[in-house]
Specification:
binds adenosine-5'-diphosphate, rod-shaped, 5-stranded antiparallel sheet, single chain, 517 residues
């Protein structure tokens, strides 16, 4: 049942892991795609914004010119031919700053003469323009029955000079006249363009002629998004170009943000996958620990059962009078005492370990001599050593006074000596020595047994862990002895370590450094 469940859990884990990894990848992909689409939308909106800006700016110029045309129109009176344009001239500089002159052309005669004019320009210049108008510009105008009063424009380049005319037909006493308004193009370029386009900070503007030559503004460098729009009505041969500076910045910002998003998505995926692995490792460790715990319970039960069975067996033998000689009786009794001691030591170990596990291990420190608990521990093991034919030797050097929990130190040393007897009886000699070291004292237990396999050296101090030397020879044990020793050593401000003994065997050294202040 249990193995079935474990297998099911394992299967689930191994299916779940790739499923989660795939889910993370899919999620990253979707995020990446939507960020890409979002960027496209942003680009589109930049194009639209630039286009509407270009339209609006181009229309502004048309509006400005037409406003002036209308201003001229509102003050012109054709009936007062001799006074033609005089009213306009009064406010011309203010109301119609780009208008140089206004001409009245008689359309009734084939010659199309200028019959009246009003001009703000010097006479010579006006006359030169009048000739240009009659000979060059008027023939360009499409005058085949346009609606009366309809405002039209002519944008023409003559000898590299640009001209802008506004014109409309008017009827008076059945005669057709054409009113021509001469706009000063250089003035439009120098005054009107800067006034109209200087407020644009987010974008740059220039105006180019039909050949792409710049009429106004700086060259527009690459990088931003540039859109062109011809002036619809007035200077229709020219094109207004608008570059969104912010478009380049926006694109860079978008690219930066996308990079950041990608890095974040990548990092999150790594974190999720790493987290999964950590969980898997933790689960595996938990599983191993739980196996170790089950083993521990089995081992401890076995450890309890064996001496108990011996005590019972030899007690019964004594009770039923089957030990007929005094030597036998004394032998049986010493077995019973020994096994009870072992039982007692095991139970104390388990209880102390349980306290450590629950974090309730409380030590009672008092100034003491290390020789005493160590001596007691060696004596407690002596009977067993003799029974196993092992010489248990104790050598004591003078050590300074330490702060000790003597009972705990005794348990630690018993554990070390007990292990030496358990795992290295063939060495026939176990040595326990106490010596001073700088800052405290050390207790070493040396045996001449198999020693500790290199891969076990760190592990054996962990709870429930049993080494190769235990499994190889099927030595009984619970795997908690050394972890208890480690806890006791650390509580005494010290440590426990293991080294190889020469020619073989191991040396466990308990270092204690707590000194009375
Ligand atoms: P246990 O003896 O109950 O297994 P311990 O915590 O006391 O538990 O010891 C852990 C492991 O360390 C043992 O299983 C054994 O493999 C190894 N070990 C301890 N002392 C010795 C020793 N003196 N010689 C060889 N191996 C030892």
């Amino acid at each position: 049942m249990a193995t079935d469940r474990t297998r099911r859990e394992q299967l689930l884990t191994f299916l779940l892991l790739p499923a989660i990894v795939i889910a993370v990848l899919v999620l990253s992909g979707v995020m990446f795609r939507s960020s890409f689409q979002l960027e496209k939308l942003r680009e589109q909106s930049v194009v639209e914004a630039t286009l509407s800006l270009a339209n609006e700016r181009a229309d502004r110029l048309d509006k400005r010119i037409i406003e002036q045309d209308n201003a001229v129109r509102s003050v012109l009176d054709l009936t007062q031919r001799t006074e033609f344009g005089s009213k306009w001239l009064e406010t011309a500089a203010l109301q119609t700053p780009t208008v140089r002159a206004v001409f009245l052309v008689d359309l009734g005669t084939p010659a199309r003469n200028v019959v009246a004019l009003a001009s703000r320009a010097p006479e010579l210049e006006t006359e030169r323009f009048r000739r240009l108008l009659v000979h060059r510009l008027l023939p360009e105008l499409k005058l085949d029955k346009p609606p009366i009063d309809e405002l039209r424009h002519l944008h023409k380049v003559e000898r590299e000079k640009a001209y802008l005319l506004s014109h409309w037909e008017q009827e008076l006493n059945d005669r057709h006249f054409l009113v021509v308004v001469w706009h000063d193009v250089p003035r439009i370029v120098h005054d009107v363009f800067p006034a109209l386009y200087s407020d644009m900070q987010q974008s740059r503007v220039n105006i180019v002629d039909a050949d792409g030559k710049i009429v106004f503004g700086p060259p527009l460098t690459r990088g931003g998004l540039t859109l062109g729009r011809q002036f619809e009505t007035t200077l229709y041969k020219w094109t207004l170009n608008v570059t969104m500076n912010s478009a380049a910045e926006l694109a860079a910002a978008v690219a930066r943000r996308r990079l950041l998003e990608m890095v974040l998505v990548g990092l999150s995926s790594v974190v999720v996958i790493a987290g999964l692995f950590v969980i898997l490792i933790a689960a595996e460790r938990e599983r191993r620990l739980s196996n170790l715990k089950s083993e521990f319970v089995a081992n401890v039960s076995h450890e309890l059962k064996t001496p108990l069975a011996l005590v019972r067996m030899f007690g019964e033998l004594l009770q039923t009078g089957r030990a007929d000689t005094p030597e036998k009786q004394s032998q049986y009794l010493s077995i019973i005492v020994n096994e009870s001691d072992r039982l007692n030591a095991l139970i104390e170990n388990v209880l102390d370990f349980a306290k450590v596990e629950r974090g309730q291990a409380a030590y009672e420190f008092s100034p003491g001599r290390l020789a005493e608990p160590v001596g007691r521990a060696v004596e407690a093991c002596r009977v067993r050593a003799e029974r196993d034919g092992v010489a248990l030797e104790l050598s004591l050097e003078e050590v300074p006074e330490l702060l000790l929990d003597e009972r705990a130190v005794e348990i630690a040393v018993i554990n070390l000596v007990d292990n030496a007897l358990k795992y290295a009886p063939e060495g026939k000699r176990v040595g326990v020595s106490v010596r001073p070291v700088s800052g405290g004292a050390e207790v070493s237990v040396v045996d001449q047994g198999p020693g500790i396999a290199p891969e076990d050296r760190k592990r054996i101090f962990e709870r429930f862990v049993r080494g190769k030397s235990a499994s190889g020879k099927q030595v009984r044990g619970s795997g908690i002895g050394l972890s208890l020793v480690k806890h006791i050593a650390e509580a005494h401000g010290g440590s426990i370590r293991v080294e190889d003994a020469q020619p073989h065997g191991s040396i466990f050294t308990l270092r204690l450094t707590r000194r009375p202040s």
